[in-house]
Amino acid sequence: MAIIKEYRGHIRNWEELCERLGIRTDLTREERENEILLRAYETWGHEMADHMHGMFAFAIWDEEKEELFCLRDQFGTKPFYYYETADGRLLYGTTIRGIMEQPGFVKELNEEMLQIYLSLTYAAGENTFFRGLKKLMPGRYLVWKDGKLKITRYWTPTFKPDHSRTLEDWADEIHETLKEIMPEVKTPDETAESFLSGGVDSSYVLAMSDVEMTDSCGYEEARFDESGLAKQTADILGRKNSRCLITPEEYFEIVPYVMYNMELPLADASAIAFAIACRETAKHTKLCYSGEGADEFFGGYNMYRNAERYGENLKTFYVGNTNIMKEDEKKRILKKYDPDVLPIEVARSIYEETEGLDPLTKMSDVDIQIWLEGDIYLNVDKMSLAAGLEIRMPLTDRRIFGIASRMPSEYKVNEEQNKVALRTAAAKVLPEEIAFRKKLGFIVPIRIWMADDRYNQDVRAKFRSDMAEKFFNVDEINAIFDDYVGGNSDNWRKVWTIYTFLVWYEEYFVKR
């Protein structure tokens, strides 16, 4: 007999699985998904995830074998953590705080992670900021039996470009596949809203859905505000739009809430805006769509257009979407610096897997395996959970990735445009000016706000605190901050990355 010990997620192809596994379809969602997990485990054992589409992380106790089986989905959309205690037990779960509350957990800072964090702005790879607490990485399962832990990788992103097809062929396949997926993303009796920015991904998801209400964020600073474009898209598609105006006061006030609920520090400035958006949206719905995944699968970032130029050099420096502090700078600002702890090590095995593939594919794969898991999906999961909102991401799907994995890079990025094939697919249901609109990214006016003495008092205080003194050469970090306030706005990311770590540290090691 098997028992579900932990589960968070949403199984998309539940109807097909119910039919294959002989499960009644008139059950509640919770009963149905529990039944699917147990029957899939009984039927396919450790290979069960090969048959499932969706977002999931779970733990199943097998009484007969006396073993624990834990699994995280292929892309890591839901988190899963584990910790071996001094007396040989395994603590596990989908939240860090849930593990911390269990007997045997010893809270210690893993200070090595700070070196990685100062470059990447998130906790990349399997280690976390808590010593001994690890992430089960995407596409892997864990078996715990007789006090021994074994981790197996059941899925790896693989790329096999097919040069026999045209741009239209690829666009048609994307469109037809998304058409198949959308009815699975929710049941007819569920009502969803959809996050909407000025970009193509959220607009495409909206156009393919039956959603009536959309949710957008805006700022008073016009050059950062995409909410007007989002409203235009909603109007064109005949949907309603709810706009949440984010003020600098609200933005800075919510930072401790974000770092506490994120459980690990995250210096992605858009995460704070996303947290506010989740809280506002949760006031009028419990289910929302979002467009994550397409940028990494289909070549959405502007830096991907430099891929060919980087060539073989990539594996010496490219560790994902962000790399804001070089080693010499970290050596200067940190009290403890270990020359062997290098961000590039996190990506080394990925470069081995993509040996012989083109530079864009290598960049995408690093972002799919490291950045999506460590930043994007962490943010979506933790901030939605904190707000009591469920977010589903139709474009993060193995079937969508399956298309991207066969698509040659020239249909992803060219000299004029990124996400070429995806935009071509989106143009089947969106006006060209929306489908081919230049990528703006989810931008925040933080680079302006944080230089303003009306809003940066806590940043200033943290940079001069005894807490900062533990980790940093305070004169050095204050020099970076002063340089930023004095007009070098490029330093904002460095300031924000140091600040978010200090806020998080205060939440977990000072207040509690």
Automatic annotation (TrEMBL):
<dbReference type="InterPro" id="IPR001962">
    <property type="entry name" value="Asn_synthase"/>
</dbReference>
<dbReference type="InterPro" id="IPR017932">
    <property type="entry name" value="GATase_2_dom"/>
</dbReference>
<keyword id="KW-0315">Glutamine amidotransferase</keyword>
<dbReference type="GO" id="GO:0004066">
    <property type="term" value="F:asparagine synthase (glutamine-hydrolyzing) activity"/>
</dbReference>
<keyword id="KW-0028">Amino-acid biosynthesis</keyword>
<keyword id="KW-0067">ATP-binding</keyword>
<dbReference type="InterPro" id="IPR029055">
    <property type="entry name" value="Ntn_hydrolases_N"/>
</dbReference>
<keyword id="KW-0547">Nucleotide-binding</keyword>
<dbReference type="InterPro" id="IPR033738">
    <property type="entry name" value="AsnB_N"/>
</dbReference>
<protein>
    <recommendedName>
        <fullName>asparagine synthase (glutamine-hydrolyzing)</fullName>
        <ecNumber>6.3.5.4</ecNumber>
    </recommendedName>
</protein>
<keyword id="KW-0436">Ligase</keyword>
<dbReference type="InterPro" id="IPR014729">
    <property type="entry name" value="Rossmann-like_a/b/a_fold"/>
</dbReference>
<keyword id="KW-0061">Asparagine biosynthesis</keyword>
<comment type="similarity">
    <text>Belongs to the asparagine synthetase family.</text>
</comment>
<dbReference type="Pfam" id="PF00733">
    <property type="entry name" value="Asn_synthase"/>
</dbReference>
<dbReference type="InterPro" id="IPR006426">
    <property type="entry name" value="Asn_synth_AEB"/>
</dbReference>
<feature type="domain" description="Glutamine amidotransferase type-2">
    <location>
        <begin position="1"/>
        <end position="147"/>
    </location>
</feature>
<dbReference type="InterPro" id="IPR051786">
    <property type="entry name" value="ASN_synthetase/amidase"/>
</dbReference>
<dbReference type="Pfam" id="PF13537">
    <property type="entry name" value="GATase_7"/>
</dbReference>
<comment type="pathway">
    <text>Amino-acid biosynthesis; L-asparagine biosynthesis; L-asparagine from L-aspartate (L-Gln route): step 1/1.</text>
</comment>
